[in-house]
Fold this sequence. Notes:
The protein has helices spanning 2-11, 92-98, 160-169, 184-192, 196-215; strands spanning 13-15, 20-22, 28-30, 33-38, 60-63, 69-71, 109-112, 134-137, 143-144. The chain is an alpha+beta fold. A hairpin with a 5-residue loop joins strand 8 (134-137) and strand 9 (143-144). It is built from 5 helices and 9 strands. The chain is globular, with a radius of gyration of 19 Å. InterPro entries: C1-like_sf, DAG/PE-bd, PKC_DAG/PE. Belongs to the protein kinase superfamily. AGC Ser/Thr protein kinase family. PKC subfamily. Its EC number is 2.7.11.13.
Amino acid sequence: MAESVKKLRRKNTFRSHHHWIRMTGKVHEVNGHEFVAVLLRQPTLCAHCKKFIFGMGKQGYQCRDCSTVVHKHCHEEVIWKCTRIKADVPSETETQSTGRFNINMPHRFVSHFYKCPTFCDHCGSLLHGLTQQGLHCSSCKLNIHKRCQQNVANNCGIDAKQLAAVLGQLGLTGNRNTPCSKTNDYVRRRKKDKGEHDFQSFRTRELLNTADRQYNK
């Protein structure tokens, strides 16, 4: 009984690098992430759109497992999976809908000295220190804390925002990877077009080939 209570407490509490926060809001599950609304006490960068998060109260969402932080309006567009979840065998339906978007491109991180204020592209907070404040990817220029390295997905060179936009055009969302109700009409219209399949395949290959060229530079 006591052990079950301890597990429940750990589940309802997560660390935000600077302080512990008690989870009191709704959990939003997207690609294995468990997002909850958080109060950000310092300027924070969105891991999805790379813009700063502003507002009053609980301004953004943070995954209570991998600590990535995003805008509230960006959380459903997160396409990378949480690195803290166990690798489960996907179902046949899930494989058909998301298999071509499974990306495994490791970053090439090296210790880096930053001469100007720089924010972590994963948790969004400032990189502190006098020397060697964080890690810098030599391929895609991603900047992160050393503590965040184990939580960063292998998506080097991938423009997550642009790829999410393409998935949205195809009627797929990050939280379900199934057609959205708002895009059903769009999908039906595309099916009437003879080149619908070629268009989708071309857009997907174009993004992945661009990422592959950047990674192999």
